[in-house]
Amino acid sequence: MQCDFDVIVVGGGAGGAVFASACAAAGRQVLLLERGARPAVNGPHLSERLQLIDKAAYDDREVCVNGLPRRLYMGGVLGGGTAMYGSALLRPGTDDFHPGSRYGSRLSRYLWDWPFRYDELEPFYAEAERLFRLTGIASADFGPLHPPQDGLDDRMLPLVPINQRLIDRNRAAGLRPFRLPLAIDTQLCQRCDACAGYLCPYDARRSAAQVIDETAARHSLTVLTRMDVLRLNSSASGKIESVTVSDRENGIERQFTGRIFALAAGAIGSAAVALKSGFDGPHVGRNYMLHYSPVAVGIFARPTGAGASFVKQVGFADYYFGTPDCPHKMGIIQSLPAPGPLMLQKSGLSYLPRRLLNVLRQRLLPLVGIVEDLPHPENRVIVKPDGSLGLHHLFSDFDRQRGAALGRAMCQILKRTGAVHCASRPFPSLEHVAHQCGTLRSGADPTHAVVDSDCRWFGKPNLFVVDGSVLPTSLGVGPALTIMANALRVSRVALALI
Fold this sequence. Notes:
Blueprint: E1 5-10, H1 14-25, E2 30-33, H2 48-53, E3 62-65, E4 68-71, H3 100-103, H4 118-131, H5 161-172, E5 178-179, H6 208-218, E6 221-224, E7 227-234, E8 240-247, E9 253-263, H7 266-276, E10 295-299, E11 314-316, E12 333-335, H8 341-349, H9 354-361, E13 364-369, E14 380-383, E15 389-392, H10 397-417, E16 421-425, E17 463-465, H11 480-495
Parallel strand pairs: 1-2, 1-9, 2-6, 3-15, 9-17
Antiparallel strand pairs: 3-4, 5-11, 7-8, 8-9, 10-13, 10-16, 11-12, 12-13, 14-15
């Protein structure tokens, strides 16, 4: 059968962009379908209201979360989450691929080991680090995490003084802080205090959209934005033959045929497309995960620089496998930008005048922890009869217990650095869905998984999934680099079929 394209990819985030780029670079005719528009910044002076309150670059769908309608902080433009992420790209540790070694009976036996190992991904981690032009120091002590590749670009942004103090005082106390590897071009970066959560007006922060555009300029990669994918159409044998889309500009429906198809619309979006396509099953859309992320904020007597410069520079893996009072696997700690006055108001300080909020912001240093949440089938994506999306998700008591312990540890780190007061909260808000994964998980057996070890859908030989939804568990670091590396690995399998 004559096909419109060799490869059709749904979603232009971390996984979709890398997969599409690899297939196009290998000489295949590739179509990438993106629901969002191209990212458009609002000038060099970023608007907190437009970006974080009005959520201009975030997904415009209303999702019913645990019965309440919400607009989520979920990438809604070409580039997906990489258009707004904080650019920290970290490799996990070996134990992350063998979660049974840490969780034992808390996980079913078939989840004790991932269907692919770290060493299978290792060369693709290095390739993804080069593709996203990672800067960092490969010789640093990353504790239980695997360090980035040798020869990493070591032109890093200068440490702001508060971060140098954060490193020095905690290193003196026996901890092992490290500089975060960042996908930031230090020649272009203006060290904005508003970074994570915003589109970068200088193109300094490396995104999947840049990878897509660079590939499209050299190879046969067609990119269509503002396209709602309505369904994948399959034959009686299960093979996908075409995709039906609706142009969001005019409502016109179109259909494209292809040889290979890849879902990469994120843990919510990919599951939704599958369910709309009638690909139901015991695990489709279930086991939704996102890291439990306690936040600790230190208040200092003098300005920290967080209100005037880029401060997301430091990470800790000392409590990856637990704190002294809670010896269970958790994840990393990393610094965060100081929230702007509007986000401070939204977080519960609306009673303070704007002038005082600005003074307070100048004296803050926030940290965020990552607690690996475990899969649960009741945490799931739902497509309602009218086509709208629902999401059911609750953290477990085990998540909350570990989050509280990591919050206490972060407060100790900040007080050691010189904070006169430290406050922590368990989770940013129910609108934050960073690091989502798990809804189309990979595994060795279709009884317990949706896709196989090559991330090919069981029973659908030409359908792959290359985003975070395939991750069986959620890791102790942000999943972006692992998603990229896995997309590169899976692209080799897909290309062999064409």
